[in-house]
Structures are given as structure tokens and as C-alpha cells.
Amino acid sequence: MAETRKPVTTIKTPVAIHYNYSIGAGQSAFMRAIREGRILGVRCPDTGKVYVPPRLTSVETASPMTELVELPDRGVVYTYCIVNIKFYDQVLDIPYAYGYIVLDGADSAIMHLIQECPVEEMRPGMRVKAVWKDPKEWTESLENIRYFKPTGEPDLPIEQIMNEIRKKSYA
Amino acid sequence: MSAGRVAIVGVGYTPFRPITPDVSFREMVYEAAAKAYEDAGIEPQKDLDACVTCQDDFEHGRSIWNEQTPDSLGAVLKPVGTIPGDGIYGLIDAYMQIRSGLRNVVVVETHSKASNMITRNYLLAHAPDPIYNKPLSQHPYYIAGMEMNRFLYETGNTKEQCAMVAVKNRRNALSNPVAAYGQKSAVEDVLGSEMISYPLTELDTSSHADGGIVMVLASEDRARSLAGKPVWIKGVGWCSETPWLESRNWGEAVYAKLAADMAYRIAKINEPREDIDFAEVDDTFSYKELQHLEALGLCQRGMAGRMTSDGVTQRQGELPVNVSGGSLGVGHLVEATGLQKVLEVVLQLRGEAGKRQLDNARVGLAQSWRGIPYASGAVAILSRE
């Protein structure tokens, strides 16, 4: 029996599951500190490298890491991009810059927005610092930092960036 | 490397608990892994050739989730295989990597963080066919109720005998310090508990638990050079029936039968009832233990209920079944469920099962079922020698 009418192509079948997310001891320390406007990392006992946010075990050696280290809220942009399309439920105006920022004294980066900088002036090596929300609004969230902005200090030279990246890489 | 026998040389696990709000999945996996490496006497970065991890994204609310595992396993920069299925499938994958001569030491990881799912039964409710089975928004346990009803009808096993399974397994769990749901109960308690989906009651049904399990597998050469007691993997098998509920065999667990046939063939076991000393079989629902015992050839069809009421499957019986407490007593560990069964077999074969240690544990069988709404599962046969 040949079907000549238009095919039925889709049906509605909604999917939703709701979750909690256990953050664990390592992230708990970070969240408690960021609530107070401080940024915590953790030092690897084998390599001395400092990971931020803190995590339970060393990426390289799998040793437990327990020595918490407080870090300054400023550092260097290693890479960045300019986001130019909107995503579902987007609140930021486009274009905006997103950066991979290595805080001074850290060996891993945190990812955050970079603002107060024209997109055409964004560059690796640029020094940036955190712009915090009003302390009254602080919660257990990385969103206590609104974004990072340029400090105006001299850039980290490109050769030094390459050396630093080699040093920080574990591969 | 030479292809040959494969052993489980180390196991590590966290206690199985209804909730674990104080630890992240990473911390849970790390604890299990650190214990497994200590047990095996290996250093992960130096000794591991590869790892296999078994989880499903929906359990965690995070996409492409199983790629999270390497850090917690100390397996960064190593080959990682991700299996979105039950832990015994991961064990089989690792077994094949070693058996084929590709690797010497492989770690298998799986865990449950089921307590993080607020609307947990949606995990099952979103599985049935969206065109034909899902539109009426039934509670997904209707599938278990229908299967139980047909199984009892075809085999002559009874609801009371199913209830005896639930009583036995929760009682066994009282002797397992890491089991979450140990309790003394009576058949009447099970039959009188809330009716979920006739004939299935609340106490015929396992409850979820959290926990991590990690196992280290090694080639024979490597196993011999390690200090611990190796437990040998003698045979493995797995099988999937059609995913269509509409054309399934509801009275018999054919997937378990065919998976067992494969495992027995590899293990050169002709008389399972003679050669298998004890078994940890899937008991997500009480009737599944009976259905699986029949499919595994550990009793004749229609005789699993009788075997249970006669006490054969008790800890002191001739064929102890789910001495650990099973999923009814330990807690259902989602994709970690199968490896919990393997874990109990390993502990029994090593003589390390404490208060619940069996006297004559020489060869044990572990079996898993993927769960509602599917008819698929895996079998592993382990031996002391």
C-alpha cells in the first residue's frame, strides 16, 4: 500500500532530569574562599606546580594535593577569543572576549571574561586583573568576579610566554 | 607480551551509601583507585598500560562525561576507553585487551552518584521508545511488573518465593559492612509493602546507592610478579535481545542464557550447577534473581523459587546466591552494579569476605542486567586457580 500523503516527520517527546552536583572537598575550599573574595590554588607535592582552582590529585603524578595556596587576582592572558554569535539564553552583548588567564604564581589557568578592552586590542601577554562584584553580592561562585580587565602594565613578551607554556605543560 | 590468562590483581571500593553529599565523584573514584593500586601493589603512572571507564551521561547530568576519569585514576596521558554501560562490559573490554596481548596492566573504573539525580526515575522513564511506549508517562516500573507477572505465570514460581529473595538478600547485607540496605524482614513485610506495579511491591525493588569500584587486571606474567592473590577470569559473555518491548521474550531472560553459554564455553564449563560454587546475579527486582538463576542454568526452568524456599541459595546453602546482599541489600549502583557483583566474587575467592566468607569458594559467577527497559547483560566467571 503506497503512502502518498505528506510523511509524519517528528513527534514531541520532552526529556528532563533534575540533578544536584556534589562538589567535594577540593572545590569546597575554593568556594569558601571566593565567598570572601580570595582565590585559592593547591600545590603539587611532587612537582611544586600550583593548580587553580584546587583539585584533589596531581595531574602529573596522581599524588593527593593538600597544600592550599592563596593567589593574587591578577595575571596574564595566554589565549583568548572574541565571541561573535549568541547562544541559547545569552545575557552578554556580542562581541565579547573570553580569556585563558594564568594568575601570577599559578601553573594552570582560570577561564573568564575580559572586558574594558576594545576587542581589536586583545592580545596574548596582556596583563589583567579581576573586577569584583560588590562584596555584599558575594556568594560561593566564580561569578563574584565580574570579569578581568587590562592593568596597563607592560605585556609579557611572546618568547617568555612560549617558555612559560613549555614549563607549565606536562605533556 | 604473551596472550594468555588474565587475572584481577587488585580491587578498591568506597562504602556503598544511599547519599554521599560530602564527596565529589572525583574524590570517590580517587579513593577507590588509590585502594585498588595499593591492593595490586602497582603505581598507576609507571605500571598502567590503559584504563576503561563505564558510566552513562544521563546519570551525571553532564555530557561526554566519562572523559572526566583520567585524573582521578592517575591515568593522564594513557589510553582511555569509555563505555556507556555496565561495569562488567568494562571488565570484559580490559580482559580482551590483555588476552589479545595488547596490554599487560589495565584498570577498570565505574561508580554511582545516583543520589545526585533529584528526579531519578526519569533515567528509566526516558529510555522506552518515544513513539510507542513513552507518551502515556507511565512509571517505568510497569515494565518490571509486566515481566514479573509473565515470568511467574510461565514458570509456576510464586510472589512468595520472590519475596524470599528480597528477605534473604537484605539479611545477607547485614553481614556486609559496606552494604547500604541490610535489614531483617519477613516475607509478609515484602508482600505487604506498597504495591508498585502488580505483582511487584516496594520491597521487591532495590533502592539506589552511591559508591565507586576500581579493579586492576593483569596478564599472567605480570600477575605472577605482583604480591597479591590473583583471581583468574575464566570466561566472559554478553548478549542483547531486541530493544523492542513489543517483541521480547517476557518469561525468560534469554540475554542471560546466551551470555552464560558464551562464558561457560570459554571457561570450559559443561555442568554449571556442578562447577559454580556461588553466584552474584542481578537482583534489581526480586524476581530477576529467580529468572536469572534459571537462565544461567544454575537450576531447571521453574525451579528457582523452589530452590530459594528450600534454602539452597542461602549463605549456608549448596549454591549461595548474592551473599553480598545483592542490589536489594547493597543498593543499586546503576552502571557500577555489575562490578559490585564481581567485587564480591573476588573477595570470596580471596578468602577476604569477613563474616560472610563462604567455606568452599573456588569458582564464582557474576552477572549483570542493564535494567529497564532492556533485555541485555553480561556474565563473568572467576576462579581461585
Tell me briefly what this model is.
By secondary structure, chain A is of the alpha+beta class. Chain A contains two helices and eight strands, in the order αββββββββα.
Could you explain the architecture of this structure?
The complex is a heterodimer of chains A (171) and B (385). Chain A is α+β, with helices and mostly antiparallel strands and 171 residues long. In chain A, 13% of the residues lie in helices and 27% in strands. Chain A has one domain (24-168). The N and C termini of chain A lie far apart (62 Å). Chain B has helices at residues 25-40, 44-47, 57-60, 69-73, 87-99, 122-125, 142-155, 159-173, 187-192, 220-225, 254-267, 272-275, 286-295, 304-309, 326-330, 337-349; strands at 6-13, 50-54, 80-83, 105-112, 195-197, 200-201, 211-219, 231-240, 278-280, 363-369, 376-383. In chain B, helix 8 packs across helix 13 (286-295). Helices cover 36% and strands 17% of the residues of chain B. The longest helix of chain B is centred in the first third of the chain and has 16 residues, at 25-40. Chain B has a 9-stranded mixed β-sheet. In chain B, strands 5-6 form a two-stranded antiparallel sheet. Chain B has a domain at 6-118 and 208-225: Thiolase/Chalcone synthase (Peroxisomal Thiolase, Chain A, domain 1), CATH 3.40.47. With 385 residues, chain B is of the alpha/beta class. The A-B interface holds A 11, 13, 15-27, 55-57, 59-62, 64, 170-171 and B 20-27, 30, 44-45, 58, 60-61, 71-77, 113, 115-119, 122-123, 126, 130-131, 134-135.
Overall mean pLDDT of chain B stands at 95
**Largest interface in this structure:** A-B, 25 and 34 residues
Mean pLDDT of chain A: 89
| Number of helical elements of chain B | 16
What's the story with the biggest beta sheet of chain B? 9 strands, mixed
Radius of gyration of chain B: 19 Å
CATH class of one domain in chain B: Alpha Beta
CATH domain fold name of one domain in chain B: Peroxisomal Thiolase, Chain A, domain 1
Question: End-to-end distance of chain A, in Å?
Answer: 62 Å
The SSE string of chain A, one letter per element, is: HEEEEEEEEH
The gross shape of chain A turns out to be extended
The SSE order of chain B reads EHHEHHEHEHHHHEEEHEHHEHHHHEE
Low-pLDDT runs of chain B: none
CATH level-four homologous superfamily name of one domain in chain B: Thiolase/Chalcone synthase
Record the strand order, biggest sheet of chain B.
Answer: 3-2-4-7-1-8-11-10-9
Secondary structure class of chain A reads alpha+beta
CATH architecture of one domain in chain B, by name, is 3-Layer(aba) Sandwich
**Fraction in helix of chain B:** 25-40%
> Cα-atom Rg of chain A, whole angstroms?
21 Å
Give the CA-CA distance, first to last residue of chain B. Answer: 21 Å
The rough form of chain B would be described as globular
